[in-house]
Every structure is written in C-alpha cells, then in structure tokens.
Design goal:
Elements lengths: L1 H12 L3 H20 L5 H26 L9 H37 L1
Length: about 110
C-alpha cells in the first residue's frame, strides 16, 4: 500500500488526474480485498488474485499510455521508478496469494477429515 500511496503522491505533483484516479480506485480495491479475503478459501483467493491482476494491468496500461503520449507527460525517472516499484509489489502480492491458493485445498481437505 505504501508504494501505491507514494506513486499517488507523485501523480498528484504531475497533475495526472486520470492516472491518479485509477490509482486511488486501485487502493480502494486492495483495501476491499484485504478486508474480505479468506485465505482458507480457494475461491476467495482466486477472486483476490483477479483483482490484483486487474490492478497490475491497469498500472501497466496507464504508464504505457503516458510514456507513449508526450503531450500528456514524459515519465520522469522518479515517477518511472515508483511505477516499477509498485508493479514489483503487485507481482509479489499476486505470488503470495498464489501460494495461499495452492495451500487452500490442503487446508479444506484437512477440515473435511475432522
């Protein structure tokens, strides 16, 4: 979350309102996933992974649009670095959820056997 908030602050300073709104929406989605995910339920984890993947795709798309539209903004080094760091954090979160998803069926089977 910290990387998204840092990224959001950089977008504010660049007056990139559309991208900023997308990141704000992404932060809200992550908060919602954090509040509702059940790490013992494979479907819940799969849904969370879908949200995270959607956020990753959004960040990649928006940064690509900015990078390829000089009239909007050339991504400066600080903004580009923050974007890359944000994507790394998102990838880590996705991998972590995937790990939990692999363990979830084992947990469910153990619950069923008791």
């Amino acid at each position: 979350m910290n990387s998204l908030h840092h990224f959001l602050n950089l977008l504010n300073s660049k007056h990139l309102s559309t991208f900023r709104e997308s990141i704000e929406s992404s932060i809200d989605k992550i908060k919602s996933v954090r509040a509702s995910i059940n790490l013992n339920d494979e479907r819940s984890i799969c849904d969370g992974k879908g949200v995270i993947l959607g956020i990753k795709n959004l960040v990649v798309k928006k940064s690509y649009e900015l990078d390829n539209n000089p009239s909007k903004c050339d991504l400066d080094q600080q903004l580009n670095g923050s974007c890359e760091h944000t994507l790394e954090v998102i990838k880590f979160l996705f991998k972590t959820l995937h790990k939990y998803q692999l363990e979830a069926p084992k947990n469910n089977e153990q619950d069923d056997s008791n």
